[in-house]
Amino acid sequence: MLDEQLMNGFPPTKNAQVTLDNWRIPPFNRWAFQHVRELVPSGEISRGDGPVWQLDRNPVNLMQTGFTTSAGIETDVQGFLEATQADGFLVMHNAKIVTEHYTNDFTAACPHILMSVSKSLTATLAGLFVCEDRINTDTRVAEVIPEIKGSAFEDCTLQHILDMTVGVDFSEDYLARDGLITQYREVSGWKPPSPGNVEGDLRSWLGKLRKTGEHGHQFHYVSPCTDLLGWILERLGGRPFHELFSELIWQPMGAEYDAYVTVDRFGAPRTAGGICVTLRDLARFGQMLLQGGNVNGHQIVPAQWIAETQTNLNTSAWKAGSGTEFLPHGGYHNKWWIVGNNHDAYTGIGVYGQWLYIDPTASVVIAVNSSQPLPLDDIVSIDSLSCFNAIVSSLAA
């Protein structure tokens, strides 16, 4: 089926219909990732009516920049983006857009789902709350969310949540057809209830997850931890996540377009993966962090939080987990992947090919939205980093 046939006509032919049941799998994700709010309820992250952060341009042709894949194949940026079904690709250097490219009917005005890059955005809001002393990183989650007592999260701290070192019985197997991850999608409103299942909700379900092992000892990537973080932020802020993120980050940053986040049937946000933003606003967010949280003289995100995120790693927990296979010299802290190269790069990563890559040394931000056929492909992830390194080297030449 050609992607352009999806959801065409009224009604679309049965084989061309994108539904709540198929939207995450190919080829339906090619349409769905740009139309998530038409499938799942959402809360609007308003840009308000303030001035847009105007981005200067210095066009550079990076599409023919060459590099070698992990399989030893010579390719270039354009070929790699086409092979990995990138919908949008934007590079900033020295605070200017040097390359901006769209395909698959994706446009500059269209929000695209970020998947787990959402975690990095959510944790940045948490950083504001920590730096304002609304909560400490060693605060036990149950002190803020008493409803979670009796679950795996009862005795974990905020830092355990931020670093994915919670000892919780959950397997992040994206291709599983049953089990907890399927329940997770159902209670989040991302999938219809399985036959015989009663319609649930995200936060009641979080309270049913059970503990395994000790907190803080091992990196264990579990998306529902970030949905709990969204709950914590709402409890501390006294308002829905989408309103808090709008008021404290999106509007002050000067976002160009409204964003949104998916919510369950009771309005609980899927802060682990449901944030949808335009590619250019994603790059703005990365540039803001590159500038120490400051935009046009206004301090939006505390600089100390950004600096701490890049440096204060729990290396023993990282080495005890499986992340070293991907980033042997890196880590994971405050919901950012620390690359571990000599440029102090860090990145947000989402399944199906979402990236927000920040290189402070070279003053480069790379934003990518994709709709790849597989949720996770280790080879593509490794080659993506090689692609980014080639871009950085080309800009520095």
Short description:
The chain has 13 helices and 16 strands. With 397 residues, it is α+β, with helices and mostly antiparallel strands. It has a domain of 32 residues.
Could you please describe the fold and organization of this structure?
By secondary structure, this protein is an alpha+beta fold. It has a domain at 1-32. It contains 13 helices and 16 strands. The chain has an eight-stranded mixed sheet with strand order 2-6-5-16-15-14-13-12, with helices on both faces. A four-stranded antiparallel sheet has the order 1-8-9-7. Strands 3-4 form a two-stranded antiparallel ribbon. It is globular and about 55 Å long.
Number of strands: 16
Q: Strand fraction band?
A: 15-25%
Order of helices and strands: HEEEEHEEEHHHHHHHEEHEEHHEEEEEH
- What form results from the Cα inertia axes? globular
Q: Are there runs of 5+ residues with pLDDT below 50, and where? A: none
Strand order of the largest sheet: 2-6-5-16-15-14-13-12
Largest sheet: 8 strands, mixed
- Give the overall average pLDDT: 96
How many helices does DSSP assign? 13
Class per helix and strand makeup: alpha+beta
Helix content: 25-40%
Quaternary:
single chain
